[in-house]
Amino acid sequence: MAKEHIAYPDSVDRLISEFASLPGIGRRSAERLAFHMLKSSREEAMRLANVIEEVKTSVGHCSICWNLADGDPCKICRDGRREHGRILVVEQPRDLIALEQTGMFKGSYHVLLGRLDPLAGVGEESLSLAGLLTRVRESERNAGQVPVEEVILGLNPDMEGDSTSLLVAERLAELGIRVTRLARGLPAGSQIEYANSAVLADAIHDRRSVEEDSGHAGAR
């Protein structure tokens, strides 16, 4: 007589599969998370479910800077004390948070929601670059409805980040706007979200002109 195969109940198996679909979570880790939820009280499990539902229904992207926000525009774009004529361009919302925690930058931001990665199928059309160009061309579309005076490139200092910075700088050059970048106090190949506050503060303070940087590169 064939031995009957014993499997998880369907709902548990689906829960494990959903956890396993998350980045960095393998099958074993997914099983541990699923069994943790099974052992938890109903109240604890429902708190998690309710928070997930709330995030998916109430959080979106700011129509000006594309940062995550539970209102439109976001708090930074609404803040009349910020220097909205200066825009610091970053790849992801987590980079914005890391830079904002330094307390060094008082302007506004623009989140590209990614960076160029041809092998992964990420091109210019996948980024929010068009929104940035609109802010520069039309001051009424910028935070505070003020003209943009400077755009600071704060992308990660690696190959993809540098390629994306070059693209953004080229598009902005057509509009005659001043473009600078964060100083290379950020180690090449590193990620902004993992840099400490002191390094990020120095990078903001010692930013330099993109044209100046290109001149140095050509002189090598």
Keywords:
220 residues, alpha/beta, Helicase, Ruva Protein, domain 3, Dna Topoisomerase Vi A Subunit, Chain: A, domain 2, 2 domains, 5-stranded mixed beta sheet, two-stranded antiparallel sheet, 9 helices, 44% helix
Would you mind describing this structure in some detail?
With 220 residues, the protein is α/β, with parallel strands linked by helices. The protein is 44% helix and 12% strand. It is built from 9 helices and 7 strands, in the order αααββαβαβαβαβαβα. The strands form 2 sheets. It has a 5-stranded mixed sheet. The longest helix has 17 residues.
In CATH, the topology of the largest domain is named: Dna Topoisomerase Vi A Subunit, Chain: A, domain 2
Alpha-beta classification: alpha/beta
Any idea how many domains? Answer: 2
| Main pleated sheet | 5 strands, mixed
Amount of helix: 40-55%
What does the overall shape look like? elongated
Total count of helical runs of at least 4 residues: 9
Query: How large, in whole angstroms, is the Cα Rg?
Result: 22 Å
The CATH class assignment of the largest domain is: Alpha Beta
Strand order of the largest sheet: 4-3-5-6-7
The ordered string of helix (H) and strand (E) elements is HHHEEHEHEHEHEHEH
- In CATH, the architecture of the largest domain is 3-Layer(aba) Sandwich
Number of strands: 7
N-C termini distance = 78 Å
Which residue ranges are poorly predicted, with pLDDT under 50 across at least 5 consecutive positions? none
Fraction in beta strands:
5-15%
Instruction: Give the averaged pLDDT, no decimals.
Output: 88
